Amino acid sequence: MSKRIQISRHGGTEVLEWVDHTAPQPGPHEVRVRNRAIGLNFIDTYYRSGLYAPPRLPSGLGLEGAGEVEAVGNAVERFKVGDRVAYAGGPLGAYAELHVLPADKLVGLPDSISFEQAAAAMLKGLTVQYLLRQIGRFQGGETILFHAAAGGVGSIACQWAKALGVKLIGTVGSPEKAERARALGAWATIDYSRENVASRVLELTDGRKCPVVYDSVGKDTWETSLDCVAPRGLLVSFGNASGPVTGIDLGVLAQKGSLFVTRPTLAGYADTPERLQAMADELFAMLADGRVRVEIGQRFPLAEAARAQEALTSRRTTGSTILLP
Ligand SMILES: NC(=O)c1ccc[n+]([C@@H]2O[C@H](COP(=O)([O-])OP(=O)(O)OC[C@H]3O[C@@H](n4cnc5c(N)ncnc54)[C@H](OP(=O)(O)O)[C@@H]3O)[C@@H](O)[C@H]2O)c1
User: Fold this and answer.
1) Strand ranges (DSSP E) for the chain?
2) Which neighbouring-strand residues pair with 72?
3) Which terminus of the chain, N or C, has fewer Cβ atoms within 10 Å?
4) Best of 153, 215, 220, 321 to mutate for ligand 1, by most ligand atoms within 8 A of CB?
């Protein structure tokens, strides 16, 4: 018997239950992982609230973790008991001491990267990999806008953009977060709680605006983000921290300058074991030589996942947050 966080209904953090749970024997293509550290992500709050639907209830929660392989199915060849591994994708249930998942969802963890670093960087770092390296395809010298730059994904994006020679303008909700984002490599910051983002972007880009705008805040920033995209540029809408974007009038893309919009997910980019491994290799290389450092701003016991989610949704966290079993 082990312990996990489970939800039986949707709602606020009060629906998170700390329960006894028997992790199943792995199926032929599955692996059972003893988690040593678990990543907290905004998407976990969407599955809790019901914005995203888990396949069934009761359901485990969480998509990111790192630990040791404890058991393998008889068709698994890539991993053996004792291997250090990490993951950043379904099935839900990473908020647990033991988690069973398909071997295809795992990557081997280099010895140079600790379990805590991996749990803090896998989902957010792979996200930044596809946002900046697969969607962005930058040459260096571009100026981009990236919302919530002091958060988990944002902290990695500031550093990775700098390493690519891309000038990242980061939005943040306080002067302390602005300082933090600049220290991590943001070229400039805008405090969207008090400044006009579109005017500041015009000033900072000499009227040119940005070829790519990355928006994970959603409802509150959608309109502003469109105003910051250069003609024929791209708005990457990749999250809903303030609520989902709904009811889009396509004509607005014509009016604002023949714009492109994409709504990507990590699962859509890391959709084969080979692509997942290639993305992870690139992330691990960035971590290994220090071009990206993992900023663990908060640690909570796994049993206190509710307190961790409250801190995240009330904008009291910076960098990554991990849960410790
Ligand atoms: N599509 C994908 O593949 C993918 C993958 C990973 C993450 N994401 C998305 O990326 C975003 C960041 O994820 P994360 O886990 O790293 O979280 P995070 O950035 O650490 O936390 C979210 C941040 O958003 C800002 N924010 C703005 N309005 C907010 C509001 N009304 N409520 C709460 N926060 C608000 C806050 O920063 P300020 O105080 O500075 O405003 C907050 O710290 C989330 O939207 C997540 O869903 C998408």
Assistant:
1) 2-7, 17-21, 30-40, 59-60, 64-72, 84-88, 98-102, 106-108, 143-146, 167-172, 188-191, 210-215, 229-237, 260-262, 296-301, 320-324
2) 31
3) N
4) 153
User: What region does 308 belong to: left with phi over 0, alpha with psi -120 to 50, or beta?
Assistant: alpha
Closest CA to 20 of 98, 92, 87: 98
Residue to mutate, 38, 40, 42, 52, ligand 1, most ligand atoms under 8 Å from C-beta: 42
pLDDT in tens, 7-60: 999 999 999 999 999 999 999 999 999 999 999 999 999 999 999 999 999 999
Atom of ligand 1 nearest to the CA of 239: 45
163-202, pLDDT tens digit by residue? 999 999 999 999 999 999 999 999 999 999 999 999 999 9
